[in-house]
């Protein structure tokens, strides 16, 4: 098969209301670039008519359209990994199907790659998200940078461009759960970022709940650093030293003042606080053990039902 210059990878999950708007903007934007391209749609087990709409679009533009149909819902990042493993382009761009990132900005990312960068991230110019997403995103960006030393101004924006070398390296990784932008950044030699537009959803609702965002950031932190475990080791040492001094203090106080019951509630409060720290540390350790458990099972990351593509 011929090798296109650009591959655009788009995961799709229950996006039937907005797919036609995506087609109407995406194909003209890529045609204007006057370069060879392919668009790889990955249907991530949609329960609406998304798969049927993608089949119809493939029949309209089979020369530049490919569709990967999962037989279940495996998640956005696994869908993108499937796109990476099946795309053929020299430059690869990831894009969400909800049109929050304008397809017209793809040309800006590719132009930046022509300057010699192998990874181009994006920063949303004016985020059209709720206030709690702004606050949570800024807090997690700061925490992630301190823990993993991966510098991404806007980790939630999926409009990004990658060189073929980075994609080939990512495809060699067999991790079950990972955070693709951070993984790519760790392999990049000349990364950069540009500002892109951000619009309200054209149709449908966000597929990321608060729980999903928390799980994603756990994958990010536990998948790229053991600093959280080291932090709790240091906290454990500090609490142990403090507890030793506190026990000595209570013994001396008992010898001087004598038996007393007034401090009982204070001791309960301290005990509950320490128990809370211990439980949180056990939960964090469980996150790492859970990742190990998922890796050693060696189960496939996704299952493909069919691939729609034009045979040469």
From TrEMBL:
SUPFAM superfamilies: Nucleotide-diphospho-sugar transferases (SSF53448). One of its GO terms (cellular component) is plasma membrane. InterPro entries: Glyco_trans_2-like, Glycosyltransferase_2, Nucleotide-diphossugar_trans. GO terms for molecular function: transaminase activity; undecaprenyl-phosphate 4-deoxy-4-formamido-L-arabinose transferase activity. It holds the Pfam family Glycos_transf_2. The chain crosses the membrane at residues 231-252, 264-285. Gene3D superfamilies: Spore Coat Polysaccharide Biosynthesis Protein SpsA, Chain A. One of its GO terms (biological process) is lipopolysaccharide biosynthetic process. Residues 7-168 form the Glycosyltransferase 2-like domain. Keywords: Aminotransferase, Cell membrane, Glycosyltransferase, Lipopolysaccharide biosynthesis, Membrane, Transferase, Transmembrane, Transmembrane helix. This is UDP-4-amino-4-deoxy-L-arabinose-oxoglutarate aminotransferase.
């Amino acid at each position: 098969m011929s090798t296109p210059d650009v591959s655009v990878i788009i995961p799709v999950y229950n996006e039937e209301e907005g797919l036609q708007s995506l087609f109407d903007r995406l194909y003209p934007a890529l045609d204007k670039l006057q370069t060879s391209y392919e668009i790889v749609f990955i249907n991530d087990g949609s329960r609406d008519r998304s798969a049927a709409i993608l089949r119809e679009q493939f029949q309209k533009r089979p020369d530049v359209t490919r569709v990967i149909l999962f037989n279940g819902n495996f998640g956005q990042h696994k869908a993108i990994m499937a796109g990476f493993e099946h795309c053929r382009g020299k430059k690869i761009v990831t894009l969400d199907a909800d049109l929050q990132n304008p397809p017209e900005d793809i040309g800006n990312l590719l132009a930046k790659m022509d300057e010699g960068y192998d990874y181009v991230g994006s920063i949303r110019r004016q985020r059209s998200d709720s206030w709690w997403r702004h606050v949570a995103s800024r807090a997690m960006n700061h925490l992630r940078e301190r823990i993993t030393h991966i510098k991404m101004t806007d980790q939630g924006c999926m409009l990004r461009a990658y060189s073929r070398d980075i994609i080939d390296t990512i495809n060699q990784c067999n991790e079950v759960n990972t955070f693709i932008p951070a993984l790519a950044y760790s392999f990049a030699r000349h990364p950069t970022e540009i500002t892109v537009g951000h619009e309200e959803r054209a149709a449908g609702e966000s597929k990321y709940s608060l729980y999903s965002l928390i799980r994603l950031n756990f994958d990010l932190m536990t998948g790229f650093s053991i600093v959280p475990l080291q932090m709790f080791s240091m906290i454990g040492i500090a609490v142990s030293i403090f507890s030793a001094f506190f026990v000595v203090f209570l013994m001396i106080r008992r010898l001087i003042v004598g038996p007393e019951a007034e401090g009982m509630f204070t001791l309960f409060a301290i005990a509950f606080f320490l128990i809370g720290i211990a439980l949180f540390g056990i939960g964090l350790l469980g996150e790492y053990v859970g990742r190990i458990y998922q890796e050693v099972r060696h189960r496939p990351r996704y299952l493909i039902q069919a691939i729609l593509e034009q045979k040469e």
